[in-house]
């Protein structure tokens, strides 16, 4: 008893056309024929097909598979070792491509077109979390301000970034000082630092009106990845993100002539 082409196709998960191709190529010819002249495959044929499919899964060309199946076990091992080396080289090549792609994505998402070495030299501990940058891109993709900020960031030179980060570092020193001195978040010093930060964003990225600055500060308080863009983890203090957020809101209220809740509370006492 043998198996028809249709039965083998169903059992092995290959098309009838593929089986005909293997037959024509001399790779897998059926052992028998029915009285009506139809191909019939034996159990040995199915075992050979299983071997063929195994090597096809490893991307061996058909002519090399034919050589392997007629070779000794030692010869088959040599073919497999050679294929293993090829696959490892291909994996390394694809890994390099993945790194280049990730680099391209990061440039698009963060707008920072510097090499990794330049990034370390300029940014130091400040890191860009790509997952946060991607979420921010999705969240603000319809914002004209966000588009302008990304375009301007992408146009910055290494020296621009060096100057920008120098300003940010000096501002951060001031922020840590007022926080460590227990200055109120809605006090003059803290609000002045918030205004300095707003000016920094306007100068280097996009005009930042008070309401936009509030939303940015809310992100600082809600998402550690966002806050790490302005204060690296090694310099952070418990409550610092919320403190900065409150200072930004207080300054925004000062700029727009409104009062914050804490200011109202003090005035009501």
Produce a short descriptive summary:
The chain is mainly alpha-helical and 269 residues long. The protein is 71% helix and 1% strand. It has a two-stranded antiparallel ribbon with strand order 1-2.
Task: Walk me through the structure.
This protein is mainly alpha-helical. 71% of the residues lie in helices and 1% in strands. Strand 1 and strand 2 form a beta hairpin. The C terminus is likely disordered.
Multimerization status? single chain
H-E order: HHEEHHHHHHHHHHHH
The total beta strand count reads 2
What is the CA–CA distance across the termini? 99 Å
Strand content: under 5%
- Average pLDDT level: 83
Structural class: mainly alpha
Lateral strand order in the biggest sheet: 1-2
List segments where confidence is low: pLDDT < 50 over at least 5 consecutive residues: 263-269
Number of helices: 14
The biggest sheet, with number of strands, parallel, antiparallel or mixed sense and barrel status, is:
2 strands, antiparallel
For the structure shown, list the relevant keywords.
single chain, 269 residues, mainly alpha, two-stranded antiparallel ribbon, 71% helix, rod-shaped, disordered C terminus
Write the layout of secondary structure elements.
Blueprint: H1 5-12, H2 16-24, E1 32-33, E2 39-40, H3 43-57, H4 62-70, H5 73-110, H6 116-123, H7 130-140, H8 144-155, H9 158-180, H10 188-204, H11 210-222, H12 224-227, H13 240-256, H14 261-268
Antiparallel strand pairs: 1-2
Helix pairs in contact: 3-4, 9-10, 10-13, 11-13
